[in-house]
């Protein structure tokens, strides 16, 4: 097979179907950019889960005088010094516990004033209305139920709270957005495949005389199909290049510069450039193989010479 002939046929085909080829490139670029973005989003969510779950704590809130009057779980009265010592001792004896920190009512009041200083309720609260608590960092954050079972319902304990529950809604929302991106990516891939099929069919029809002559002189089916497949693969390669540019530019302007999300949201551990560069090869592989295979199977059905 002469490479020069194949290359010349690719050029001819691209020029004849310039508008449709451009549409294929754009649709492939957008669909692959969404694919890459969805893959990076999944890595980001996983990274955030690992980052935050490693820092979350289990909070054991202790009963105060106000709770004893209003909360059934504190019906036996405010926590006593003996009960506090026993709770701390039992926590430190557990193998799953990493560290135990005691927050007094005065410290809780100070933290509340710092975090909600603009709230109209800030001035109405007093330190004795705040709850003492033990903040427990676990070696494995998934072992919350062990702490919950051991300390819920104890005398002096008002509530055992797992901070992971506060993050679950956020991660559910992020996962939902990721699935939405995957759904849109799938729709764009279908559009790209339909455009590729139609482009190949039009190209095969417009060059049916040339392919007929090639068949008469003994050219093999693969030799006849190769220029069409190469055209589709080349268009897919350009689309993959466009997707790579979109991902790199998006990563640069959204996180490193421009909107600078890394500065606006310093508590989020953003994934680095290495994660992006690991995704790009897959983008190019899919960008070349998807159109080439679509063209191959289309030609088997529609290239009748």
List keywords for this structure.
305 residues; alpha+beta; Alpha-Beta Plaits; 2 domains; 4-stranded antiparallel sheet; 11 helices; 69% helix; rod-shaped
Task: Please characterize this protein's 3D structure.
The protein is of the alpha+beta class and 305 residues long. It folds into two domains: 3-52 and 168-303, no CATH class; 56-162, Alpha-Beta Plaits, CATH 3.30.70.3040. It is built from eleven helices and four strands; from the N terminus they run H-H-E-H-H-E-H-E-H-E-H-H-H-H-H. The chain has a four-stranded antiparallel beta sheet with strand order 2-3-1-4. Helix 1 (3-16) crosses helix 9 (221-256), helix 2 runs antiparallel to helix 7 and helix 2 (18-53) crosses helix 9. The longest helix is centred in the middle third of the chain and has 43 residues, at 164-206. The radius of gyration is 32 Å and the shape is rod-shaped.
Break the fold down into its secondary structure elements and pairings.
Elements: H1 3-16, H2 18-53, E1 58-62, H3 65-70, H4 81-93, E2 97-103, H5 105-115, E3 133-138, H6 144-151, E4 157-162, H7 164-206, H8 208-216, H9 221-256, H10 261-264, H11 273-302
């Amino acid at each position: 097979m002469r490479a020069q002939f194949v290359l010349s046929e690719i050029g001819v085909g691209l020029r004849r179907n310039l508008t449709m080829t451009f549409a294929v490139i754009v649709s492939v670029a957008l669909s692959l950019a969404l694919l890459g973005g969805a893959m990076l989003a999944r890595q980001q969510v996983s990274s955030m889960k690992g980052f935050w779950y490693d820092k979350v704590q289990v909070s054991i809130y202790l009963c105060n005088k106000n709770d004893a009057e209003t909360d059934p779980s504190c019906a036996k009265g405010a926590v006593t010094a003996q009960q506090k010592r026993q709770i701390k001792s039992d926590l430190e004896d557990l193998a799953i516990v990493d560290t135990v920190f005691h927050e007094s009512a005065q410290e809780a009041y100070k933290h509340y004033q710092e975090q909600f200083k603009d709230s109209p309720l800030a001035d109405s609260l007093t330190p004795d209305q705040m709850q003492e608590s033990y903040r427990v960092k676990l070696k494995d954050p998934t072992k919350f139920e062990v702490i919950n079972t051991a300390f819920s319902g104890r005398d002096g304990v008002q509530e055992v709270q797992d901070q992971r529950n506060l993050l679950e809604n956020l991660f559910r929302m992020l996962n939902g957005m990721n699935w939405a991106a995957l759904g849109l990516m799938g729709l764009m891939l279908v559009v790209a495949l339909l455009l590729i099929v139609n482009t190949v069919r039009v190209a095969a029809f417009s060059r049916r005389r040339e392919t007929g002559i090639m068949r008469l002189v003994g050219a093999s089916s693969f030799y006849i199909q190769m220029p069409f497949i190469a055209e589709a693969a080349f268009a897919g390669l350009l689309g993959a290049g466009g997707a790579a540019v979109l991902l790199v530019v998006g990563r640069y302007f959204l996180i490193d510069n421009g909107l600078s999300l890394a500065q606006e949201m310093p508590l989020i551990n953003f994934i680095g450039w290495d994660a992006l560069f690991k995704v790009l090869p897959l983008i190019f592989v899919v960008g070349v193989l998807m159109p080439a295979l679509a063209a191959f199977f289309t030609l088997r059905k529609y290239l009748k010479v």
